[in-house]
Amino acid sequence: MSVLAVCAAAPALAVEGAMNLTHSTVGYASLLIFALAYLLVMGEEYLKLRKSKPVLLAAGVMWLMIGYVYQEHGMGEVAKEALEHNLLEYAELLLFLLVAMTYINAMEERRLFDALQGWMVSKGFNFRSLFWLTGMLAFVISPIADNLTTALLMCAVVMKVGGSNIRFINLACINIVVAANAGGAFSPFGDITTLMVWQAGLVDFMGFLDLFLPALVNYLVPATLMSFFVPQTQPNTASEYVEMKRGARRIVLLFILTIATAVGFHGWVHFPPVMGMMMGLAYLQFFGFYLRKTLHRSLERKKAIAIANHDEEALRRLGSVVPFDVFKRISHAEWDTLLFFYGVVMCVGGLSLLGYLGLVSEVMYTEWNPVWANIMVGLLSAIVDNIPVMFAVLSMQPDLSLGNWLLVTLTAGVGGSLLSIGSAAGVALMGAAHGKYTFFGHLKWTPAIALGYAASILCHLLLNSRLF
């Protein structure tokens, strides 16, 4: 399902008069609190503790300590300015994601994804064909529908056709995670990190297409190696017909129009893309109003056709039709994820105000070659979620060329594929395919994925050398 106006203005670190508290008790305590919170986030699958809870608590405690210290030094307004800056960033992030998630949930409710799943199952593909088909679809769909939603959709297909074939399910899930993360890397709508970079104004909308071939290489290298170990036998599955609900295709068109509106706001009047997304929510609301008002007439027409054709199944389906409700779709958004982003933005903003991001920036982007620093960002995102990693980089505001901004976008996006816990897609699939797709099952193929990671970086350096 990414993920945004997270860094549209100067970071909290740049607040005039900010104190350097990197060697203070508050600074060390904040680092410890953030580390403990993130350990709980990484253990979400085993602890059954939603990831938003520890970061929300950590953010509150950190800013309470920061506020106290600044008040003691008569600089409360400086801390307040930094806090309000981070809250504004999150507000834009929240609204942008909320609209995107609402559209995806609306498509799901109209059974668009069920119809796609039913089509694939009904075609009678063998395991190797399904391996490639689900992987390529994940790569193609994730730039629009976000990598998390795409991965879960493809995983549902794999679980349905894989049955008890654990080997196929594990390989197919790894393939889907790599494909979804790679596909999300060359589109502002494919991942939260790419959306952050776009909304920060560092790369324009079409500029992300320079990452298409490197992202494709990142997916194809490990997929090709894994495909030799996928059997070509036929799965034992029964096909079923899935009928989409009324308005499903038109909602897809409205989502495309919403994306175009967001791009227009950003490109033409230089407003945050979230303005276009909120306008796009109005498109969906008006369409929902139309569907409700015309529901009775539509049902009567379809009922007459079903009676004339003596179609009892069609009559049964018509009896279960419910009106479309936009606000119900909004309520189904991933609120745990949205609140997790709040915690991340506020925690990283606090560390920035304390001076830690400036310290890291000084080491990574001054003493190191920026290319190696950006490669390291990708490796870090395999262990720590790529959202705080990318937010930290953007808050540092290193002076990078366009080629290096694209490189860090690529590495942060695809680096999470190296481990199953490195991306939201991987964590979600470990839950969806519990016991069949596992951390160690993924780890066995990390060398192949690392080869794709290195190949994609090399491809970017060669193809886009003019941008460095």
Condensed summary:
With 468 residues, the protein is mainly alpha-helical.
Question: What is the overall pLDDT average?
Answer: 81
Strand content: under 5%
Helix content, binned percent: over 70%
Low-confidence stretches: 1-14
Radius of gyration (CA) equals 23 Å
Q: Profile the largest sheet.
A: none
Number of domains: 1
The end-to-end span amounts to 32 Å
Q: How many beta-strand elements?
A: 0
Write down the secondary-structure element order.
Answer: HHHHHHHHHHHHHHHHHHHHHHH
Helix-strand makeup class: mainly alpha
Total helices: the number is: 23
Spatial shape: globular
Give an overview of the whole structure.
The protein has helices at residues 25-42, 44-47, 52-72, 76-109, 112-122, 127-145, 147-162, 166-183, 192-199, 212-227, 248-268, 274-293, 295-308, 312-318, 326-331, 335-354, 356-367, 370-380, 386-396, 402-414, 424-432, 439-443, 446-463. The radius of gyration is 23 Å and the shape is globular. The chain has 23 helices and no strands. α9 runs parallel beside α19 (386-396). The protein has 468 residues and is mainly alpha-helical. The chain has one domain (5-467). The chain crosses the membrane at residues 24-42, 54-70, 90-106, 127-145, 151-169, 176-199, 211-230, 251-268, 274-291, 338-359, 371-394, 406-433, 445-463. Residues 39-413 form the Citrate transporter-like domain. This is Sodium:proton antiporter.
